[in-house]
Structures are given as structure tokens and as C-alpha cells.
């Protein structure tokens, strides 16, 4: 599998990704008493230039998946191929060099900018760290990047606290763009922003994608926003991808019972239709990722659950062309 | 970069150095009357220490047995001690010991302690565990007792007293610094730096340490008074500065044998009090300036 030639349309290929966070007990003689199963056997491809939406409830492992792909968390198993290079096998300086090609936009624009650096220093830092520019070139580059994301280049010497949330997020976008990456993981980039600002930032992301042929992994829980921006959408539940397909296919013909329940929660902006909207209300809470249910993770809340669901984890199958579902009942 | 053209043709105007958090904090200190009073006291004693030779009317070591234990008068402002030495001159010269010693101990303990604590917090694991247990053991002793024990083993001299004080004081800074690093290293901007591809050492020095200094500086300015007091206490017991060097603690100590000559204990005691108060006022002001509730004003 390691030497498999990938079709050139795939920028990223994630294969059997697993990330568990160990839980320790004890003081000096620590022993592991369990693990949070944050991401379990997740596989998908991302095509060059597309936007893959990653949706799911809070705590289902969306962000962890994004961060594990970028090797911020090292995975416990699985492979991440970026342009045919297995990131999991890279270490130290080799990995640091690969980081040029993949960047991240963070959820909280207040926490993701170092308060003691000026906006210019923040955006110039990646350029200097990778020796892509000397100081003078970096200043010029930062000016054009600020302009690109819709900020005044004269803001170079300002500090993050002088900006609004939307402006800060633009700074975060400029920082991610400075290395001219091919892949950007957007970790809920708009959920911390005012609704009026969200559209601006999303439009900016779309413009930049068109301009630089960027590939996005767009992590969000706002289903209508994901529908707007994504080409394909993956639905996660408790660390596992339940369904993955084209945007239109997913929103019009959801196959997995969890996806159906999730989509039935989206309000329709038409009072007549909204009154007739059938909602699927799931019973109970999301089980603990420390001790996930056997077999299918969704079976405890699934309206279709059968005995086989408890015994065997459903395979992530391709049911129709480019429509993958992990469910015994489909 | 005043008038520079970026490559997209937009002029990069104005290098207005905006109001950084640091500047706002400095302003918060300068606008705080108590902190300024403390700073004035510190500056006053620093000037006294620097210009001791000019200010003091007598040689602090010159004995004049005929004039011994004279009460304060126009000739001897603070009176004379049991060997007839001018108390005023001795208090003036005493500042040459107390101030530099206090600063030296604080700076060394701060630098050494912070580096040890920062590395423990950043590296973690067994290294962290060992370092912190050593710090805990040191902290378990009352500082003056441990400092006395170390000074007693090394022998009484100013240098040994300094070493003892630094050994006693570093864990306080280490513990504080470790906690700071642990909290700062979980910030999103540290994660961002990793993902950008900044090296681990650079992250520590550029992204973590600059955001940890606030409480360290506050502690340093608050502790300077205690250090001066502890040095005085050690000299009082006889394990710090050796006679005949004038030092406030040892002067108070020798004064207590001549009960009716109140000036021998009062004036060096007042000197200690003012310096300690000065550092505490200033330290309080620094602490308030770093209080997040102060920001935004």
C-alpha cells in the first residue's frame, strides 16, 4: 500500500487514521487506564482544488482529524499521503519542511494570534522560518498579503488586540496563505464570528480558492454553510466517518440514519415548508468516546438498530458512485 | 519603512508604533501614585548608595572612642555607636550593601529559576518530575532556616550569604515559571506556530517565554524587599556581612546590646523599612499593571 501510485487528482489521501488520547492515573507510577477514541479508522481522499466539508456534533473528532492530518497530533495508526509523501513517516526537519504545503486556519481568531507580535510579524514569521524571503522581501510580501485578504497594508505595525474578530480572522488567513500551501485545513473558521462577518470570511475563502487553486478541508457544524462551500461532505459521529459523498447527493439523498437526523434539524427559510418539516429527534446523548459502543458507534441512538449493529462495525462501503456509507441497514 | 511601495502598488504608509500592551502597562505604573512613591524611594536609596562618599560626613569605619554612644546631635545626625563611629555615615554606606545584594539575589534567582522552570514545563516528563521534586524539597524549608544552614556550612561571608539566598530563592521562580509555561504552551498561537513549521526552540523563546514574563517580573519586584530583609536578618545573626563593614541588619544587631542608645537600632531599622516598603509599593504597582482588568482602560 505504501508504494501505491496515486491518481494525480488526489492531493491528500487519508488511510485508516487513528488517534487515541491516553488517560493516565496515578502520580509517579502512572498507568494508562483508558483512552479517548477521538478518531478511529478514518479514511478519505481529497482531490486537488476541491473543498471537503467535515461536519458533526461537538466532540465528534472533526478538529482532531484536521490536526492529525497536519501532524500536529501524531496518529496512533494509519497513513496520511500528501502528494505521495507519507507524512506519518516524516520526523523533525523533513516534516517541518512539508508543513509549507499544508496550513491551518483556526477557529478562535482571538487565541490563535500571539498578542505580543504585530500583525506584520505574525504574517512574516512563516516566510522567515522557511527562508522564503529576507526581511525586506517579507515586509513587501506581507503588504500584498494584507491587501489580498482585504486589510490595509498600513496595519503592519498594529497588534492583534486592535482588530475586530473578522479582521483578526483575515490575519489568520493571510498567515496561512503566506507559505502558498496547497492544502488549508479550516477548523471552524467562522463559528467564532458574528453572522454578518461569517459571509465575508467565507466569500474571501472562496475567492482565494479560485485564485490560488487551494484545496480546503472545511470543518464546521453549520450545515447550511457547509452546503454552501463544500464540493463533497463527510459526516462524522464519535470519531468515525458515517457518510461521505457529493454535496448535492448528501443533502438531497442522505442514506445514513445519522445524516438523515442531522439534516432534518436544519430549519427551512419558508414558513409553509418549515411547518411541514419532519424532524427526526434522536434519543439520549452522544456516548462517551472513552468507552464507545461496540459495533456501530451510532447504534445506541439509531432508529434502525438491529442485533448485527452491536456485533460488527459496519464497513465504510461505496454504495453508489462516490457515495460512501458506513451502515448495515443501507 | 516610512514610504515604501508593496509589490501590488499599494503604498505602505505610516509606521505608527501603536499602543502595545507593554506601553499601556508602563503607563499604568507611571500613573499609579503608590508605585511612583515606591520608585522614588528606590531611586533615592540608589542615589545615596552611588554617592555615599559625597553624602557621608565621616568615614564609616573611623573609630572615635571619646565620642562613643553619643546621642543624635548636629555633629552626629544619627549619633555614634559603641566604637564612636558616626551612625549617619554608616547608614549611608550600608545602602551600598543592601541594595546591590537585594538586586543581585533577585536577578540571579529569577534568571536561573525561570530557565529551570521553563525547561521543566516545556520538556515535561521525568525531567520535569525530578526538577520539581528538588524545588519542592527546597521550598519545604522556611527560607531563612535553609539560608542560615547553607551559610553556616559555607562559612560567614557576604558571598556565601548570596549563594545561600539564591539557592533558597530559585524554586519560587521555577514553580511560577513552570506553571506559566504550562498554561501558555497550550495556547492556539503556539499550535499555530508548530503548524507553520517554527522549530521547538524558537517556539519556546519567541512564542512562549515573552508571554510568561508578567508574573515573574511582579514577583521579582515584590520579593526584592524580602530578600533585603532576609540578608539583614542573616547579618543580624552573624552569618551575612562580617564586621566592620556597615550593613543595616548587623547594625541593628549590634545596637540591641546597648539598650538606652535607641538611635543605634532605630535608624538602620528605618532604612531597612523604607527600602522594603519602596520595593513593595513598586511591586504592587507592577502587579496591578499586569492585571488583565487594567487593560482596555
Descriptors:
heterodimer; A: 330 residues; alpha/beta; 11 helices; disordered N terminus; B: 297 residues; mainly alpha; MetI-like fold; two-stranded antiparallel ribbon; 12 helices; 1% strand
What this model shows, in words?
The complex is a heterodimer of chains A (330) and B (297). Chain A has 330 residues and is of the alpha/beta class. Chain A has eleven helices and twelve strands. An eight-stranded mixed beta sheet of chain A has the order 6-7-8-3-9-10-12-11, sandwiched between helices. In chain A, helix 3 runs parallel beside helix 5. Chain A is globular, with a radius of gyration of 21 Å. Mean pLDDT of chain A is 88; it is low at 1-6. Chain B is built from twelve helices and two strands, in the order ββαααααααααααα. Chain B has a two-stranded antiparallel ribbon with strand order 1-2. In chain B, helix 4 (87-123) packs antiparallel against helix 5 and helix 4 (87-123) runs parallel beside helix 12 (263-290). Classes of the chains: A alpha/beta (330), B mainly alpha (297). Chain A binds chain B through residues 28, 67, 70, 72, 96-97, 99-100, 103-104, 106-108, 111-116, 125-126, 129-130, 139-141, 143-144, 147-148, 153-154, 156-159, 161-162, 172, 175, 179, and chain B through 1, 4, 6-8, 10, 12-22, 129, 187-189, 191-199, 202, 207, 210-211.
